[in-house]
Amino acid sequence: MDPFPTAFPAAPTASPFPPLEPQGTEPSSDWNAGADAHDLPTRENRLIAIGRFAFPPEPPLDDEAMAGRDRRWTSRVIVFVTAFMLIFNAASIQNWSRQQAPGWVTATVQQLSDVWATQIGLLGADQPREGVRDVYEDARDARFPGQDDTTAP
User: Fold this and answer.
1) Domain extents for the chain?
2) Which comes out higher in pLDDT, residue 132 or 19?
3) Cα separation of 118 and 39, whole Å?
4) pLDDT at res. 79
């Protein structure tokens, strides 16, 4: 027998080994048509696994706890917005107090708002409001070239 054959026979020779699969059937395959590559198991990071063991997730909140969390969030937002408006929009309190009917409460609120607006003005927190007001007034008073200045917008 030639160790390096160069001429191959036209018909395959019979193998000395028995067939692995029955003749006439399609060869078996490990292909699964329903398989998805994303379903394959992945190895989890060891730090994440240790963290989950050391700090297990909390049980889900019940309805009462969720309502309490929502109330706390809402309260924080209201307090933040109120403080923001007191600092950066102190003139609105003055305008509101001047529009109310005269009385002891209205006079007290007006005096407090005047003092508050003065203090906020010293800090310079009223400058953003004044800047927006100036831009608005400039845009309102703007005229086209050749337009009469007395014409109402």
Assistant:
1) 64-141
2) 132
3) 67
4) 98
